[in-house]
Amino acid sequence: MDVYKKQRLKGVLMAIVFILAIYIQFLGHGIRGYKGLTLQLLSLLTFIALLYIYNRKFR
Predict the structure, then answer these.
(1) Rounded distance, CA 59 to CA 30, Å?
(2) Measuring CA to CA, which residue among 49, 44, 10, 50 is closest to residue 24?
(3) What percentage of the chain has pLDDT greater than the value 90?
(4) Is the pLDDT of residue 1 over 80?
(5) Contact, 1 vs 16, CB < 8 A?
(6) Quick check: 36 and 25 in contact, CB under 8 A?
(7) What average pLDDT score do residues 52-58 get?
(8) Can you tell me the mean pLDDT for 16-23?
């Protein structure tokens, strides 16, 4: 797999995970109790991981 396809695939996968994390955030906001809080924290950890992966190349 050449570099362009690999970068493109990585970008598409990160976009899909980002959209999924937004969905999980809204889903967790609608659920009361610890289950909703856990979903929101999972979403937050996903956002932080995506930011880390994106910013890692700019060190």
Answers:
(1) 38
(2) 44
(3) 85
(4) no
(5) no
(6) no
(7) 91
(8) 96
CB 24 within 8 A of CB 43: yes
pTM of the model as a whole: 0.85
Residue with tokens 């937050």: 44
Helix axes 34-55, 3-30, angle to 10 degrees: 160
Token pair for 43: 């979403």
Give yes or no for a contact between 46 and 14, defined as CB atoms under 8 angstroms apart.
no
Give Cβ neighbours of residue 23 (< 8 Å, ≥ 6 apart).
none
Pair 50, 21: CB distance under 8 Å: yes
Place of tokens 């009361």: 32
Take residue 49 and report the two structure tokens written for it. Answer: 């991981």
